Amino acid sequence: MQGALQLLRDRLRMGLRMSDPHSNSVTLTVSILREMQVVYDFTSNPAHLPRWAPGLCNNIRRGEGSDEWIIDTPEAPVRLQFTARNELGVLDHWVRPAPEVEIHVPMRVVAAPYGSEVMFTLFRLPGMSASEFAADQRMVLADLRRLKGLLEAPDAA
Known about the structure:
Blueprint: H1 2-13, E1 16-17, E2 25-32, H2 36-43, H3 49-52, E3 60-62, E4 68-72, E5 77-82, E6 93-98, E7 101-105, E8 107-112, E9 115-123, H4 130-152
Antiparallel strand pairs: 1-2, 2-9, 3-4, 4-5, 5-6, 6-7, 8-9
């Protein structure tokens, strides 16, 4: 219960919102006081991922001869594939931690009257405990906070 209260406090303080944390998915949302195109341009560049999502990776490189990217994690290298640039703000990506495993991660940037909303949907994977799912949510919230901070900084991209 303490963890859920902390998540609620964090998201209210940082302008973050999410759906019911007891479901099999949550959509985490952050308001960013920058135009949608600026947020999309920065976030859609995989090379920027280590700057705002160190919870996922701190190093990224292109896969050889493919449209995949490779990130180094403590466990093993993981392959990522990103949706093509588009006018709709779609930032979906697919995480491939093993050849037979693919995890779809829906992500969007939408224009708002004050700037942008970034929405990240996180699914509870089969066999994932409630505490593991909560930990993933905290990691993504921290990454979204970092993205917000980077893009709202006076010297932002």
